[in-house]
Structure formats: C-alpha cells, structure tokens
Amino acid sequence: MGALPLSTAELLAVLINSGSKEKSALDLAHEILDYCGNDLRELGRLNARQLCNFRGIGPKKAATILSALELCRRRQIVPLPDRTEMTSIPMAAEYLRSLLSDHPCESFFVLFLNHANRVVHEACISEGGITSTTVDVRVVYRIALEHRATRLILCHNHPSGTLRPSKADINITRQLQEAGRLLDIEVLDHLIVSELGYHSLREDGAL
C-alpha cells in the first residue's frame, strides 16, 4: 500500500513506533502535532530536548524523528546541478527559499551564473545572527571570477518572517552592483526569503 495514503499523524506514528502505557504511538503523534499547531515547519524546529518532553518519547525516538525531518530538509535543498538554467526569478526564489527560509540565523547566499543564466556555482557567503549578517564584497567577486560568472543572484533570509528590505540590505546590494560594474558582472536581483514567500528588490525598483 505504501505511505501515500497515510495521514501526517499516521506517518509520525510509524516513526514513533510504540507508545506508552497511557498512549498509543498514534495518540503521541497527535499530541506532538497539536503542540506544533499541525504545522510541519514548526515540527521541524523542535529539538531533541523538546521532543523528549512528551511522555513516551525518549532520546532514541527523538533521534528517529529528527533524522527523518533532516532527510526531508536535505531532499528539498539538494544543490542545483551545474549548468542548470535559471529561467526566471520565481524559479530562483523557490529554490533559494527552500534552502534558507527555515534557517534560525540570517544567511547570505549567491547563485553565480554565466551569460546564458546557467548556474556555474552557488555559495553561502556568510551566516550571522538573528537580525543581520556581514557580507564581504571581495569574497563574492573572488568566487565569481574563479568560476567565470558574469551574473549574480543574491539572496538572504529574514528569520523574523518579514520580507521588507532594510537599509542595510539595500546598501549591500548597491555596493555589490557598483563593484560588479567594474568587473562587468551584473547583479540580476537580490531576493529576501522567509517562510512567507520572497521579495525581489528588482521587482520593487530598488535595483
């Protein structure tokens, strides 16, 4: 029959495997999902200690659940193969959002493209705190030159969920644009992503 017909609670119960004297594995699954508001994104943010707070979940069961969630996350963020063509900003945004939207800290990522908009490299340039990260313009263009990229798509996440660009976001975009002009490397867009979606600085006229 396979797993497809199973509900989310039933799938989680399979991972839990066995319950306690008071609750079945399915009861435990419902309890955990209720705690998360039946939101799998919230479930993915739980750690082992939080899972072990549920009566009937020990370290081994917590590790099993977290391992399954990590596999799902990695399946979503398999790196783009070299020479994948970025045919649109929404396509790039969807990939980058799956990569960054659930990061607890702000991270800055760059897709390096050739003149045909094919991906020649991708890299996380920096990881920072909850509200900011520092980007070294020289690092971005050193990588671009190494991979003979002629176009860039910049992206960073906002852990707070807001998609509004800050002054710092606009400033670093302009710095990267100015440096790129000297090297004949074009900044196509700067995307801000969160679990709510994405925001394009190109589309709102900031680029």
Number of helices: 8
Overall radius of gyration: 21 Å
Shape: elongated
SSE ordering: HHHHHHEEHEHEE
Q: How many DSSP-defined strands?
A: 5
The biggest beta sheet is recorded as: 5 strands, mixed
Q: Give the low-confidence spans.
A: none
Percent range of helical residues: 40-55%
Instruction: Give the oligomer, counting copies of the same chain as homo and different chains as hetero.
Output: single chain
Instruction: Give the end-to-end Cα distance, rounded to a whole number of Å.
Output: 52 Å
Structural class of the secondary elements?
alpha+beta
Provide mean pLDDT, rounded. Answer: 86
Percentage of residues in strands: 15-25%
Going across the major beta sheet, what is the strand order?
2-1-3-4-5
Give a verbal description of the structure.
- The chain is of the alpha+beta class and 207 residues long.
- It contains 8 helices and 5 strands, in the order H-H-H-H-H-H-E-E-H-E-H-E-E.
- The protein has helices at residues 8-16, 25-35, 40-43, 48-52, 59-76, 89-100, 137-146, 167-183, and strands spanning 107-113, 119-127, 151-157, 186-194, 197-200.
- Strands 2-1-3-4-5 form a 5-stranded mixed β-sheet, with helices on both faces.
- Helix 1 (8-16) packs across helix 2 (25-35).
- The chain is elongated, with a radius of gyration of 21 Å.
- The mean pLDDT is 86.
